[in-house]
Structure of Peptide methionine sulfoxide reductase MsrA:
Amino acid sequence: MKQAGSDKERHHSRRRARVAVFLSILLAAAGVAASQPSSAQEGIAIPAPVLDTPVRPVATETAVVAGGCFWGVQGVFQHVTGVTNAVSGYAGGEKQTAHYEMIGSGTTGHAEAVEISYDPSRISYGKILQIFFAVAHDPTQLNRQGPDVGTQYRTAVFPRNQDQAAVAKAYIAQLTQARTYKAAIVTRLEPDRQFYRAEDYHQDFLTLNPTYPYIVYNDLPKIENLKRLFPDLYRERPVLALQTSRTN
């Protein structure tokens, strides 16, 4: 427990430092800062996937995506109707390096990722991807999201099966052909990668810390964008990972 607390304090210290630098730039030179990449960019309306996964006779499916700091991505999907759980974690590397203090180096192959469990009778994999690309992150930022820089903050989709891989590949091609974004989509497809749950102090961070400066600036706007762009799928009460783990 002492080590976990120490990890948490170091993590918060580093992120506070990044936020402080970013906000100081914003205040000192608003015109310059406005042109810099930000996790808080306004979400955009994008077309739904033409190709989607077939409905399966199962109660739960899972999707794994990475789009910068997992606090915001997890927070977005916790507010999506049909999602039964959203867990922050790591994907892309090995089990022995799936720890925050190690992945922070950017050399483990891991990305901060979110495992989304959902009811396929209420929401499809394609719709999960549409929300991911529209409001959860900016898929045109290479190895960064807003103030967070490094391969651990890359944009990636980790397909769980061949159907998901086909849908994700086709959707990226669809959005690219439609020139949905001003810049090229750099989202990577990384199949056959294991997901590892992150430390408990990372779970439900957006909900538990709504006044934390990083959350206020980078992540709460994503929730508002979800509400605006997907009103029929928005749920006010989030499904929380820590509560779900205690009931399973």
About this structure: DSSP finds nine helices and eight strands in the chain.
